[in-house]
Design brief:
Oligomer: single chain
Number of strands: 24
Largest sheet: 4 strands, antiparallel
Strand content: 25-35%
Number of domains: 1
Radius of gyration: 22 Å
Length: 465
């Protein structure tokens, strides 16, 4: 017969055991052609590398819910997958922008493989600019023309993706640099503003949703900046010992459901925290009203070996509530990389008891101080279970957004949208695809039972959708 202490111990284990989770299911897939132009026809002239300046690509670098079936997609710094000039890391004078898209989700007919049909459509294209003059590179000695966009006019200075558009006498977070590499996007609760995070600075800017004009700069601590700037990524990395890793800055962005707080996350650890070989990247909490910041550590999973560590990167952070988030952690393998996708996972994190680490530097000092995390969705597993080959899973699944709830068999489910960055490459032919295959802007929709997100609070977007 069990004694009382053993019974109490068993009861404690039973109480502490996590509740059973319902399956997070793929319910729809949609795409927008990666070979067509967007609605900014005034930018359609060929870029320095010959690619049209309004190619519709990279939509899933960041994805934001904007109310009803409307979403905002933000391309990154533009088409730089075409090699043409290593002195500017193959970047071009692509004018930064965001795309307004509709993602219409309706029940499928009985013969469909998935229970819902997703129909994406492009509604509008908005170019991003500043009222203040910006610093552009002259192109001298680099084999490229001036970085000043031809569309610039009085009090309308456009941001571009070209890597030499910076003031060499300033640190990288100088807010009047013209170079901009958007990666995360969120919409204000009023529906009137757009927040965008960037890798170059790293920056977080606020834009007017209707005009695309920059309204505000959220200043990050100088520890995130590099002081020796270069248009060549590898040179910028080797020339600095602190600050963000080149092309791996503020990758993800979340906004809390009440619209009062932003959370940015670095793609890789700061140089002083170990860089791309480090295990802890940083989450930055930003009070929108005051601009005050706090920091938390996020521990990456090692997907290599002890002899040759290889950490993945973080692509996105999405608010479940004011303290719980989903984080997209992934490799760079799959369609577009000529390889097979292996590691693309979404984790659930909780900042309730997380330690603030803004005054802590160095990988060894961050040990034991990271936020708690649990696996929420193995994306590769979920997609392969639905018949998608690993070599056909987009290499860069980067955008995350919740959408409107749906009803499945009488049960209300939350929807989670995942989008890819196709690098502005509309077709692929490689060793795993011997004949050309389409590489569109893709959207995967998952249904999530409320038992899996008990703390979920939807963001309420007012105004124009």
């Amino acid at each position: 017969m069990l004694n009382k202490s053993i019974i109490l111990s068993l009861l404690a284990l039973f109480v502490m055991a996590p509740a059973a989770h319902a399956e997070v299911k793929l319910i729809a897939i949609g795409s927008l052609d990666g070979k067509i132009g967007d609605r900014s026809t005034e930018t359609s002239a060929p870029l320095e590398n010959g690619v049209p300046g309004n190619l519709l690509g990279g939509l899933g670098s960041g994805l934001a819910y904007a109310g009803n079936n409307t979403f905002i997609g933000v391309p990154d710094r533009g088409p730089n997958a075409v090699s043409y000039n290593s002195a500017v890391s193959d970047t071009t004078s692509y004018i930064n922008r965001f795309q307004t898209i509709q993602l219409e989700l309706v029940p499928s007919n009985d013969s469909s493989a998935l229970p819902f049909t997703l129909t994406p459509s492009l509604i509008d294209t908005t170019l991003l600019s500043s009222n203040q003059p910006l610093y552009y590179g002259s192109g001298a000695g680099l084999g490229v023309p001036s970085g000043v966009p031809a569309l610039n006019a009085n009090s309308r200075n456009y941001f571009t993706g070209r890597s030499d558009n910076f003031d060499p006498n300033q640190i990288s977070t100088y807010s009047n640099n013209a170079r901009f590499d958007p990666e995360g996007v969120r919409v204000s609760n009023s529906g009137e503003q757009i927040f965008i995070s960037d890798e170059y600075g790293p920056y977080i800017y606020q834009f007017n949703r209707n005009t695309g004009r920059r309204m505000r700069v959220f200043n990050l601590p100088t520890k995130f900046a590099v002081s020796n700037l270069s248009p060549v990524s590898d040179t910028e990395i080797s020339g600095n010992t602190s600050g963000r890793v080149a092309n791996k800055g503020m990758e993800g962005l979340a906004i809390t459901p009440n619209g009062k707080t932003l959370f940015g996350i670095l793609q890789s650890p700061l140089l002083q925290d170990g860089g791309t070989g480090g295990a802890y990247t940083r989450i930055v909490k930003i009070d929108i009203e005051t601009g005050a910041t706090q920091e938390y550590a996020y521990q990456l999973d090692n997907i290599g070996t002890s002899a040759k560590p290889k950490y993945p990167t973080v692509s996105e952070i999405l608010a479940i509530s004011d303290r719980e988030f989903l984080v997209d952690e992934r490799d760079g393998k799959g369609l577009g990389d000529g390889s097979k996708a292996a590691f693309k996972k979404i984790y659930h994190i909780d900042l309730t008891n997380a330690q603030e680490v803004s005054n802590i530097t160095g990988e060894s000092n961050l040990v034991g101080k990271a936020v708690s995390k649990t696996l929420f969705l193995d994306v590769v597993l979920a997609l392969t279970q639905n018949g998608i080959k690993v070599e056909d899973i987009p290499a860069k699944l980067e955008g995350l957004a919740f959408g409107e709830d749906v009803v499945i068999n009488g049960v209300t489910k939350h929807t989670l949208f995942i989008a890819n960055d196709n690098d502005f490459v509309g077709t692929i032919q490689d060793n795993l695809h011997l004949t050309s295959v389409d590489n569109p802007n893709k959207f995967f929709v998952f249904a999530v039972d409320s038992i899996d997100l008990p703390g979920f609070v939807p963001q309420k977007i007012k105004g124009k959708n």
